[in-house]
Design brief:
Blueprint: H1 2-10, H2 18-27, H3 30-47, H4 49-52, H5 90-125, H6 129-142, H7 146-157, H8 161-187, H9 191-198, H10 203-211, H11 216-239, H12 251-258, H13 267-294
Helix pairs in contact: 2-13, 3-5, 3-13, 5-6, 5-8, 5-11, 6-8, 7-8, 8-11, 9-10, 11-12, 11-13, 12-13
InterPro entries: BP-dependent_transpt_permease, MetI-like, MetI-like_sf, OppC_N
GO cellular component, one term: plasma membrane
Organism: Kaistia nematophila
């Protein structure tokens, strides 16, 4: 019996699985863990906004306009974070604004990532005129400041939530195209790609089944950072009146409608601004953690 116990203790432990190894590397970055917790709370609030918000985001209480937060003198416990200039509950609008902002960020990432992966792989595996046309078009987009380009696109097709997503998708598309093309050009020279060609695999299979999975690490990191940038761009367009239109509780539009009350009712401006700050910071922290976990060379000491 003692010999069996000794043999069991001497037996090598099974190596951790890929998910466990990834989470171990990710958790080494404590700031990334904090960002993940905050982001998880924001996602929870966005999903269950209908149940968590005390009021409708567009419901007006005309007798309670510009009520300060409940802990400030003159506040009302019925409106924990106060009300805006026309009596709408700020907490409810911030909760529904989280859903709207995260929806914009995720929509932009999914659209730009899918189109960017396809165009990037085509540019990598079709080195003739298709690659030249795609990359020169991306260079033209990158030559224009991102916010200015988004403003021009929205001004042409009209201000709305859908058009905001389209404009920001176009702005961030070149980053995915260039990233995927560079990664695919590096991977296509590997021995496993040559072996796949010798084995009779077609070009499409090599592109999407052989090369693409080995290019996903930098794409995932770029996607995490694009979400925060897309939220900022959408807020900027909303502030300029070119994004989601009132009475939509989009944080940028809330800032725009409240800027004239900066001195008389500062909470109307401060609260959506803090919401944008916290959300973008949390996503950026998670992006840093993903970078460290997926690329050991970038891992902090």
């Amino acid at each position: 019996m003692p010999a069996e116990k000794t043999a069991a203790l001497a037996a090598p432990k099974a190596p951790p699985g890929p998910f466990a190894s990834f989470f171990r590397d990710f958790s080494e970055n404590r700031a990334a863990l904090v960002g993940l917790i905050i982001l998880g709370l924001l996602v929870f609030v966005a999903i269950f906004a209908n149940f968590l918000a005390p009021y409708s985001p567009t419901e007006q209480f005309r007798e309670f306009t510009r009520i300060p937060p409940a802990w400030v003198e003159g506040g009302n416990r019925a409106f924990l974070l106060g009300t805006d200039e026309i009596g709408r509950d700020m907490l409810s609008r911030l909760i529904f604004g989280a859903r709207l902002s995260l929806f914009i960020g995720l929509s932009v990432v999914l659209a730009s990532m899918v189109v960017g992966i396809v165009l990037g792989l085509v540019a990598a595996f079709a080195p003739g005129w298709p690659s030249i046309v795609i990359m020169r078009a991306m260079d033209v987009i990158l030559s224009v400041p991102s916010l200015l380009l988004a403003i021009v696109i929205v001004a042409i097709i009209g201000p709305s939530l859908t058009n905001t997503i389209i404009a920001i998708t176009v702005v961030y598309l070149p980053y995915y195209v260039r990233l995927v093309r560079a990664s695919a050009l590096q991977e296509k020279t590997r021995d496993y790609v040559t072996a796949a060609r010798v084995g009779g695999a077609g070009t499409l299979r090599i592109m999407f089944r052989t090369v693409l999975p080995n290019c996903m690490a930098p794409i995932i990191v770029q996607a995490a950072l694009t979400i925060s940038n897309a939220i900022l761009e959408a807020a900027a367009l909303g502030f300029l009146g070119l994004g989601a239109q009132p009475p939509s509780p989009e944080w940028g539009a809330m800032l725009a409608s409240a800027r004239e009350f900066l001195q008389s009712a500062p909470w109307i401006v401060t609260e959506p601004g803090l919401a944008i700050l916290i959300t973008v910071l949390a996503i950026n922290l998670v992006g840093d953690g993903l970078r460290d976990a997926l690329d050991p060379k970038m891992r902090r000491s």
